Amino acid sequence: GYLSTYVSYLMATGEITGAVGETFTAGKMGEYTVVDDGMGGTMVVLGPPFRFTAENIDEWADGY
Asked: Is residue 40 part of a domain?
């Protein structure tokens, strides 16, 4: 989506390199940091993952 397009643009124009620890602003989404992906590469994380459990699944059932 928006963040991946922004990161792609910044890398293509040389504004960021994708090095661990590098920070950048992604327009209206704010500031992000490039992190180690644990497999020899890097990544930018949009936010924490959703965790679906028996206790919270009803909160999500109507939205998806």
From this structure: yes
Q: In this structure, what are the phi and psi dihedrals at residue 30, rounded to the nearest 5 degrees?
A: 95, -160
pLDDT band, very low/low/confident/very high, at 36 (cuts 50, 70, 90) = very high
* pLDDT number for residue 60: 83
Joined tokens for residue 13: 């124009």
pLDDT digits (tens, 9 = 90+) for 50-59: 888 999 898 8
Task: Establish if 19 belongs to a structural domain.
Answer: yes
- What is the extent of the structural domain holding 31? 2-47
Instruction: Count H helices and E strands in the chain, helices first.
Output: 2, 3
Structural domains in the chain (count): 1
b/e per residue 12-22 (b: at least 16 CB within 10 A) = eeeebeeeeeb
